[in-house]
Design brief:
Layout lengths: L1 H9 L11 E5 L4 E6 L3 H12 L1 E4 L10 E16 L4 E13 L7 E6 L4 E6 L4 H6 L5
Antiparallel strand pairs: 1-2, 1-4, 3-7, 4-5, 5-6, 6-7
Length: 137
């Protein structure tokens, strides 16, 4: 879990605002490889993923090896309510973790307005997001 926290803080600049950009981070290169304007399209994709949250990640320390991570600052912050997981909070920024090999489904690291970190699974597709950040299928 410390690795998740350290990685997200590495390229997190605090709470979301309209001026922050969407960032694409490659864990193999250990750097941000592309940035994009935080457009309505990214905001809609983020909202869609939040609507499909299916619960907390149950793995103690999910792997961040060989992944692409898309950081999307949410402007304005979005409410996430998932009663079964006891989640009811405002999400300020989202990190979509997409393994390069299909060994595991994508998952989310979420930062709340209260500076807490929530790690969740979701059932939505990331095809549109991958296209938006110019990643091959």
């Amino acid at each position: 879990m410390w690795l998740i926290l350290c990685l997200t803080l590495f390229f997190s600049a605090g709470s979301a605002n309209g001026g922050e950009q969407v960032e694409l981070f490659d864990s193999d290169e250990q750097r941000v490889v592309a940035t994009f304007a935080n457009s309505d399209r990214f905001q809609q994709e983020a909202q869609q993923l939040l609507r499909t949250v299916s619960g907390r990640v149950l793995e103690l320390n999910p792997s961040l090896d060989h992944v692409m991570i898309v950081k999307i600052p949410l402007a304005p912050p979005q409410r996430l309510k998932h009663a079964a997981s006891g989640i009811d909070t405002e999400i300020a920024e989202m990190f979509v973790i997409m393994p390069k090999k299909a060994a595991r489904r994508p998952w989310l690291i979420l930062h709340t307005k209260e500076y807490e970190t929530v790690v969740v699974e979701f059932s939505g597709a990331v095809d549109q997001l991958r296209a938006s950040v110019q990643l091959p299928d």
